[in-house]
Amino acid sequence: MTLERFEEILNGDTVKLDCKLNDLGVFNLLAKYLESASDDIVSAACHDQIFLNFDIETLAEKISEEDAMAIREAGVFIDQDSLAKFV
Questions:
Q1: Which of 31, 51, 47 is nearest to 39 (CA)?
Q2: Alpha-carbon distance 75 to 84, whole Å?
Q3: Short-list 62, 82, 72, CA closest to 11
Q4: What span, in angstroms and rounded, lies between the C-alpha atoms of 12 and 59?
Q5: Which residues contact 31 (CB under 8 A, 6 or more apart)?
Q6: pLDDT tens-digit profile of 28-64?
Q7: Which residues contact 62 (CB under 8 A, 6 or more apart)?
Q8: Which end of the chain has fewer CB atoms < 10 Å from its terminal CB, N or C?
Q9: What is the 3-state secondary structure (H, E, C) of 22-74?
Q10: pTM for the whole thing?
């Protein structure tokens, strides 16, 4: 998938938000895209928002459109060149 398509999915408002994944489900889905099994999924937290430890360009090359839609439906979005999620 292209970076532009990935950004369109995560930041677009055309995706139906029908969350089927909870926070742990999102982590489990994204775990298969980590560079190393020892990498942390959460890179930072601020009040009610977490930032996820993924390079957006690298993830866009690897993630399937179905998985991108699933994480979008679960509330993952792009915030200042990072993946983020409200908790």
A1: 31
A2: 8
A3: 72
A4: 17
A5: 41
A6: 888 888 877 677 888 898 889 999 989 899 999 999 9
A7: 33
A8: C
A9: CHHHHHHHHHCCCCCCCCCCEEEEECCEEEECCCHHHHHHHCCHHHHHHHHHC
A10: 0.81
